């Protein structure tokens, strides 16, 4: 994973509607990047729905949530609509963002990883789950965020 204290690498990736979104657009805001292996898989769905159900915990902390995986914009659109996800999902089909953040798993998919970036673009927290079959429960993720 990228190291705490480093400048977050810039990226531009398409969202679920195909519109390009750059990290620099969020300058002045805290951003939580959530790298995950894939749309509509059991663990990823549980994870992102858990975050959806508790999204106010992020907004109360002034944090914008952005999910990133190698799935296509169309896959993200269907996934977000099906599960009513209230945050951006970005398509990293070439895995350029996952590579830049050292969040690429051994099977060529994104690891289940989290990167909290401050208002100036500095990494405050970087964490990845060792096993892709589990995810960081909301209370544990928030505890890590609050400690950073």
Q: Which fold name fills CATH's third level, the topology? A: Glutaredoxin
The average pLDDT value, as a whole number, equals 93
Helix/strand structural class: alpha/beta
CATH superfamily: Glutaredoxin
Largest sheet: 5 strands, mixed
Number of strands: 7
Can you identify the CATH class?
Alpha Beta
Cα-atom radius of gyration: 14 Å
| N-to-C order of helices and strands | EEEHHEHEHEEH
For the record, the count of structural domains works out to 1
Number of helices: 5
- Strand order, main sheet: write it out: 5-4-3-6-7
Strand content: 15-25%
Q: Whole-Å distance between the termini?
A: 16 Å
Shape-level CATH architecture: 3-Layer(aba) Sandwich
Shape: globular
Low-confidence stretches: none
Percentage of residues assigned to helices = 25-40%
What does this structure look like?
GO terms for molecular function: thioredoxin peroxidase activity. InterPro entries: AhpC/TSA, Peroxiredoxin_AhpC-typ, Peroxiredoxin_BCP/PrxQ, Thioredoxin-like_sf, Thioredoxin_domain. It catalyses: a hydroperoxide + [thioredoxin]-dithiol = an alcohol + [thioredoxin]-disulfide + H2O. By secondary structure, this protein is an alpha/beta fold. It has a single domain (27-130), classed as Glutaredoxin (3-Layer(aba) Sandwich). It contains 5 helices and 7 strands. The protein has helices spanning 42-53, 55-59, 73-83, 96-100, 138-147; strands at 12-14, 20-22, 30-35, 63-69, 88-91, 113-117, 123-128. It has a 5-stranded mixed β-sheet. It has a two-stranded antiparallel sheet with strand order 1-2. It is globular. The two termini are 16 Å apart.
């Amino acid at each position: 994973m990228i190291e705490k204290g480093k400048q977050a690498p810039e990226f531009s990736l398409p969202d679920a509607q195909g519109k390009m979104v750059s990290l620099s657009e969020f300058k002045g805001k805290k951003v939580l990047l959530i790298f995950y292996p894939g749309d509509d898989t059991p663990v990823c769905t549980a994870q992102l729905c858990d975050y959806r159900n508790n999204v106010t915990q992020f907004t109360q902390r002034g944090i914008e949530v952005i999910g990133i995986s190698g799935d296509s914009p169309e896959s993200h659109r269907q996934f977000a609509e099906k599960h009513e996800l209230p945050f951006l999902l970005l398509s990293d089909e070439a895995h350029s963002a996952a590579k830049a953040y050292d969040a690429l798993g051994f099977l060529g998919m994104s690891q289940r990883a989290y990167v909290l970036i401050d208002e100036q673009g500095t990494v405050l927290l970087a964490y990845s789950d060792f096993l892709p079959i589990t995810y960081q429960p909301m209370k544990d993720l928030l505890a890590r965020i609050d400690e950073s």
